[in-house]
Amino acid sequence: MRKTRAKKRPLLPDPKFNDQLVTRFVNNLMYDGKKSVAFKIFYDALDIVEQRKEDEEKSALEIWKDALSNVMPHVEVRSRRVGGATFQIPMEIRPDRKISTAMKWLISYSRKRNEKSMAQKLAGEIIAAAKEEGSAFKKRQDTHKMAEANKAFSHFRF
What we know:
Elements: H1 20-29, H2 35-52, H3 60-71, E1 75-82, E2 85-92, H4 95-111, H5 118-130, H6 135-149
Antiparallel strand pairs: 1-2
Helix pairs in contact: 1-2, 1-4, 2-3, 2-5, 3-5, 4-5, 4-6
C-alpha cells in the first residue's frame, strides 16, 4: 500500500452505561448519521430485554454482551485462487473483526425479524442470541461448519 494505515479513532463511551462497546454497536445501528435515534432504539431494546428476561441476576447489558459473544465467530472461510481453482480456506479472525462481524450479524438479522418496532426486533434477537438460538447464532454455526468442512485446504493459508 502506498499510504500509511489510518489511525484508529478513540470512541467516546455512551452516556448511560459508560461503555465504548455500546457506542460501537450504536454506530453500526445508525442510519443517515442519526445517532440519537440509534441510541433511543438501543436503550429501548435493552428496556424490553430487561422486562422479558428470565435470568434475574443478570442485567440487560450483561445479556446483550452474552448475546454478542455467542454470535461472535472464531473462524471464517476466505477465498483463495490456487492454479485456476478457487478454494475456501478457513482462517482465524482477529479480535476486532470478530466483534464487528457479530454486531453486523446481530443488527442485520434483527432488521429482518417480524416485530413492530426496531427496538422490539433488536430485543428479540438479543434474547434469542443469549439463549444460543435465533438467526444470528445460526449464521455463526453455519460459518463454523463451513470452516470445518474446508479444513483440508488449510495448508493453502497465506
